[in-house]
Amino acid sequence: MVTDIPPPSGTLRPRLLLVYPATVKLGWVRRFQLPSLSLQQVAAVVPASWEVTLVDEVHEDIPWDRSYDLVGITAMSHQATRAYEIADRFRAWGIPVVMGGIHPSVLPEEALTHADSVVVGEAEPVMERLLNDCRGGQLQPIYRSSPPSDDLLTVPWPRRELLAGKRYLTTQTIQASRGCPYDCPFCTVTPYFGRSFRYRDPDDILAELRSFSGRLTIFLDDNILGDPERARPILKGMVGMGLKWGGQANLRFAEDPELVRLVAASGCIGIFVGIETATGSYANLPKNSGGSSPAQLIRRVRDAGIVLEASLIFGFDDHDESIFDRTLRFLDECSPGVATFNVLTPYPGTALFTQFQEEGRILHQDWSRYDHSQVVFQPKLMTPDRLHRGWLEVRREVYRWPAIFSRVLSSPRGRFTTLAYNLLRRGGNLSAADLAILAAHDLSGTGSGGSSS
After folding, report:
1. What distance in Å separates the CA atoms of residue 101 and residue 73, rounded to the nearest whole number?
2. Is residue 279 within 8 Å of 304, Cβ to Cβ?
3. 390/433 same-domain check
4. C-alpha to C-alpha distance for 1 and 394, rounded to whole angstroms
5. How far is CA 186 from CA 1, 279, 377, in A?
């Protein structure tokens, strides 16, 4: 039970502002975004004696109000620069600021140059002590939370009422598990959430799902099917609920046809799968213990009526300029419902960042550019400009109308959902600046499409 120091009799409740920073201003696309689940969970462990305001800068302006008693800001690396700007402004008014999230957790000393306090790791276990310290004027520089050693995850139900009036794709987001044992060198999940899958009690998850009033639900787990035996009770309990849900997993789950059928029966309409790369030593395919090819596994998911979104990354050390054509051929063979492409990003705190830093390959530490869409390191087998342009070229080819219609027609079931996924991805696919880069290259006569060099 959360206990706290009550405010003196006759005084107003202390005020806490929780901020999710925005790095870019979005137009209509913002209505297809998801709210910050982590801040809702943090708000859920704040005692009732505090007044909580949650601001998502994607949807609204920050209330620059000097009456807050504490400001809490979460930040991934690409948000850090904006988070520091917000923190500096509030601190200039004498308002204490606490920062948390992945970036402050891995670089707490940097964050402390802009904040009074930093939460390292998961925030929920330390919030009671932090808030009491704040009320007592004894806020500490570091509050450290280590992932539990057991495999049970306990998190509060998020405070969705704080999102009232904001328009998202859905506010019915949920987290069933945290952590990952795979420890991929470019991923922040294992360093932040631990090296094992920790699942919530299935009854608690199903009770939260039953509290939803709408149908569309998103699991925000990094790998909802990471431990199939612990995921099965959740999936079986969802059968018949009438929910339509999406989530993220690796392709290994598709090796079990029965599990694929259960995922579909539970209401899954779309699954995001990190393929990582079409070929080479960095492909996510070694996680597949069976003998099925990626194309066979993807078709199995697709044939069950689930839209599979294949996520691929460009820029690994075994990628030369041929990777762009090879990726297009791979997608033609596998025919996933939709595809997503990212530029390899060496986030601080990962083994990849340490490696590139030791090799002198980090080009800069402008965190605002660590966003999956800009090259912030020196690739091994091509120039940074070639990597960026190849990424743009593949996205252009994959989201041409003929390619979209081909994927839709290749789906034996769920064609409307497949089309909707593709239209959403196409809508924010290439900016005017991206198109200008491609046009300039095409006009130079040095090639076009995925095979240009």
Report:
1. 8
2. no
3. yes
4. 52
5. 38, 17, 13
Please give the C-alpha separations between residue 331 and each of 246, 395, 409, in angstroms, as whole numbers: 21, 12, 15
Reference 371, options 339, 344, 338; nearest CA is: 344
Q: Is residue 156 part of a domain?
A: no
Kindly write down the DSSP assignment for every residue of 121-135, as one continuous string.
Answer: S-SGGGHHHHHHHHH
Q: Answer yes or no: do 211 and 279 share one domain.
A: yes
Residues 139, 215, single domain; the answer is no
pLDDT (tens place) for every residue of the chain, 453 residues total: 334 444 444 458 999 999 999 987 766 666 678 999 999 999 999 999 999 999 999 888 999 999 999 999 999 999 999 999 999 999 999 999 999 999 999 999 999 999 999 999 999 999 999 999 999 999 999 999 876 777 899 999 999 999 988 889 899 999 999 988 787 888 888 777 877 889 999 999 999 999 999 999 999 999 999 999 999 999 999 999 999 999 999 999 999 999 999 999 999 999 999 988 887 666 665 344 567 788 899 999 999 999 999 999 999 999 999 999 999 999 998 889 999 999 999 999 999 999 999 999 999 999 999 999 999 999 999 999 999 999 999 999 999 999 999 989 888 787 888 888 888 888 766 666 666 676 766 666 554 443 332
Give the Cβ contact number of residue 170 at 10 Å: 17
- Both 193 and 132 in a single domain? no
Say if pTM beats, i.e. exceeds, 0.70.
Answer: yes
